[in-house]
Model the fold of this input.
Amino acid sequence: MKDAAFTPPCAQTLDRHGAASRCLLRLRENLGQPGMSDAEFLRRYADSHPQWATHPGELDVAALGKLACEIGVAGNMTVTTDYAETLAAHRLGQAVIVAMDCAPLPQAQHGAARPHRMVLEHMDEDGFVVWCPFESGASDLLPRADRIWWQRWQASACIFHPRQPAAV
Done:
């Protein structure tokens, strides 16, 4: 007899729901820390994120900032939609995760929101380049986007500020 209530456990991967988590792992590696598998990351931090039982690696903005501090990526985080503020932080060498509620495609989009989280790799007055993790498990640098797309995509930046050294 088949149990209709049985649902298989979620795969231990960040592919479908964990773009923000995968971005944090990339930032962690950019700081010279050793790589961590999806399964290890999920195992290590799952107790603080009960939603990972069904949405592995999913993080809202508050959880993203908190986890960034826990894994040593930042001392704190601020969020802005301002391009100039994001550019200034990027030029200071601060890590940035770019959040969008639509796909980063250079065309008008309609329909349901489809959140994307990406690491800012390069930015100047005229445009920006992001590293994007895909649901397939692959990732790539996306083609340079002109500055106008920051506003059109309603992008926001999660800016990670370094830990301050302890006072002596």
